[in-house]
What does this fold into?
Amino acid sequence: MNFNPQNILIIDFGQIGDIILSLPALKAVREKFPAAKITAMIGKSGAEVVEISDFVDGLITVDRVKMRDGKKLESIKEVLKIIKDVRRRKFDFVIDLHSLYETNLLGYLSGAKHRLYINRENRSLDFLANFQPKPPLENKNLHLTDQYLNVLKPLGIENAPRSVEIQPREKDLQKIENLFQAIKAKKLVGLFPGAGNPSRRWSLKKFAEAAQSLSKDKNLQTIVFLGPEEENLRVEVKEKFPIETIILGKLSLLEFTAALSDLSVLISNDTGAIHLGAVVGTPIVLVMDRRAPTTYLPLTEKICVVNNDTIDEIGVAEVLQATLEFLAK
It folds into this structure.
């Protein structure tokens, strides 16, 4: 198609997992318009990952949680500030991957001549778009990555790769190498016991039992990762896990990503950690309730989903078997 925008804004809000699942779409736009300047408007949680992907030239980072939960007057001021900044940049093309009321309106107010939005039933103002042809209607049965790629179909982007890998920053890799210096001869097995929703958490007791069994192999080293929401588990982890278990918390997002890239396998609940691990090529054993949707899972061949009717019914032996199969490879 004879369409050659020079200054593109991609609106790409969402949680860290959503952002990572959108990376194939960002890469596809980069490859379609290699000479264009591409800026991504990103929620604060995923901005650093997009930055190291090198698929965009610049970022506009938005703290959506602060705007949602903060004082209304301050939130309105922040929105007006963002609109002013976007208009100043003089974008000629806006792609809205999420297509919510507020993002559609923002794209319209940007002043961009061309606007590409998807129609999300009861969630979009896609009449504010003007790109022809329009993308297919939202299909909630599709994997989220495929939904993002569907937005790009009017651009002639078809059969784009559905997964990407990115390389952590050298300084983050160096910090992790220094942390792991004493255990670098061992295979590292990471455990991430956290998850935002309690229904997605395999019991800490079972994580500890798995670590106990793995610790019998002196060629393995188990590492428990605690994010900011899991720091309250530190005392309990020390009590229940083998004494040789390493507990790592207070890592930055990119340091955590670098640490995941060093693992032989990651055992985790269904949370952002699996997406970070997948994007740096880490084999993943995912402990997951069978009723949970699969349209948000990482698109990687290096994943084994261990599930049952409820997460509490998943046994330690099943998780260990999947882990040992990865380690054997």
In short: The longest strand covers residues 37-43.
